[in-house]
Amino acid sequence: MELRVATFNLENLDWAASHQADFARRRAILLPLLEALRADVLCLQEIGAQKAHKHAPREYLALDRLLAGTPYAGFARATSVRPGGDAPADVHNLAILSRWPIREARQIHHELVPRWSWPPPRDGDTQPKPILIEWDRPLLYAAIELPSGALLHALNLHLRAPRPAPVPTARGEGSSKSQIEGQFVAAQKREGQALEARLFIETLFDSEPDARIAVCGDFNADEHDAPTRLLRGGDNELQQGPRALAPLEERVEAARRYTVLHAGRQKLIDHILASPALSSTWRESEILNGGLPDEVYAQEPILGSLHAPVAAAFEI
Question: Domains of the chain (ranges plus CATH)?
Answer without folding.
Answer: 2-315 (3.60.10.10)
